């Protein structure tokens, strides 16, 4: 872990490392397509000793179509989380309320996020995971997009299955009690660095359940109330 070698690393420095890592990806031709939130449950924040979530960057190379199949061997130890995703309808910066943040959203869909970690057995400190882009390595968006005003966004049922067997059930309420609160928190954290969200960007609001380890041959399905199905396959 980074903190084992440099124990004095701060959270701000971890975000600087994250940005430096992203800059190298952009130099290779990837583009920024959005952001993801992590530690969006109160229990997880308490466990990590923080009072706010963390965030990472999403790039064009992380984007997968619904029904895509990934190669397990391309990852260290991939896991998958059920998510709610926002599509930004306009630029957003400053310190918005959740209601104000939601008004900048043009669409909502279900999503699966693939998380992976450079750290053995997913064991890390807060500083380490932030430096590692909050473990984000890929995501799949559902094709059923709805305007947030048409949904009871604060309590959408979510069921994730692997190979036809239910492995996790949850609700969008697990994401900071309402996904819009996660979106507003992200904008405030970006604003502290003089940044914001852009029209068309994707925001993954946070995992609604614990992550599930992926194995070769797995077929993952997420059903989100009102937002349909999202699928991901895993090859060897």
Automatic annotation (TrEMBL):
Superkingdom of origin organism: Bacteria
CC annotations in GO: cytoplasm
Keywords per UniProt: Lyase
Gene3D superfamilies: Fumarylacetoacetase-like, C-terminal domain
An example Gene Ontology molecular-function term: 2-oxopent-4-enoate hydratase activity
InterPro entries to which the protein is assigned, alphabetical: Fumarylacetoacetase-like_C (IPR011234), Fumarylacetoacetase_C_sf (IPR036663), Hydratase-Decarb/MhpD_sf (IPR050772)
Designated name of the protein: 4-oxalocrotonate decarboxylase
């Amino acid at each position: 872990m980074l903190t084992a070698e440099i124990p004095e690393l701060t959270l701000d420095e971890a975000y600087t490392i994250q940005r430096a890592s992203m800059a190298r990806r952009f130099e290779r031709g990837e583009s920024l397509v959005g952001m993801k939130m992590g530690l969006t449950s109160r229990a997880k924040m308490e466990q990590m000793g923080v009072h706010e979530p963390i965030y990472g960057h999403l790039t064009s190379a992380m984007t997968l179509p619904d029904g895509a199949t990934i190669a397990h061997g391309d990852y260290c130890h991939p896991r998958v989380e059920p998510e709610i995703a926002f599509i930004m309808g306009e630029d957003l910066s400053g310190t918005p309320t959740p209601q104000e943040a939601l008004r900048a959203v043009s669409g909502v869909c279900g999503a699966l996020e693939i998380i992976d970690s450079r750290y053995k057995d997913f064991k890390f400190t807060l500083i380490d995971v932030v430096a590692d882009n909050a473990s984000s390595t890929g995501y799949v968006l559902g094709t059923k997009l709805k305007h947030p005003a048409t949904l009871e966004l604060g309590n959408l049922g979510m069921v994730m299955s692997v190979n036809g067997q239910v492995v996790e059930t949850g609700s969008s309420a697990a994401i900071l009690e309402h996904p819009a609160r996660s979106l507003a928190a992200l904008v405030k954290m970006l604003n502290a660095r003089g940044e914001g969200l852009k029209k068309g960007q994707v925001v993954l609001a946070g995992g609604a359940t614990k992550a599930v380890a992926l194995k070769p041959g797995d077929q993952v399905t997420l059903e989100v109330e009102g937002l349909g199905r999202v699928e991901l396959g895993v090859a060897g």
